[in-house]
Every structure is written in structure tokens, then in C-alpha cells.
Amino acid sequence: MEQLYNIYQIKHIMATCLTNGSSNLVTRETGKKIREAIEGMLEKELDGTVVTLDFDGIGIIDYSCADEIIAKLITRLNPSS
Length: 81
Prior knowledge:
With 81 residues, the chain is an alpha+beta fold. It is 48% helix and 12% strand. The chain has 3 helices and 2 strands.
């Protein structure tokens, strides 16, 4: 069976979700918007697809935003962790 791969470019997700034009990921609320967009995209993926989150072009990411995006995604995608 062929492995499926997809790359989500965070800067493109930011451009569609955020209106401020920033290249920085700061605040928990910003992280929530990005995470929800990623979750919506993941729902459309075929089972077994490997997804890479590409943070190229992102200036900074603060702890609360990273927690909201990465930690919550991991927790929700792998409830046993």
C-alpha cells in the first residue's frame, strides 16, 4: 500500500484564518484558530495519511500559541498519550 503524504504550510493557513497579516504566532486565541483550521483539513485526509506541519516563514511562535496548536493536536489525535 502506498503511503500518502501532505504538507500543511502554516503561513498559508494563517493567511486564510487571520486578518492582521502577521507572520508571528502569538496568543492562545490565534493558536486556537490555526488548530481548528488544521483539524478541519485533517478531517478530509484519507486514513493513514502522514501530515507535516511546515512552519517555514513564521517569525516567532510563543508558548501559549504552540501549546494551543501542537499540544492539543497531539492530545486529540492520540488520546492514549
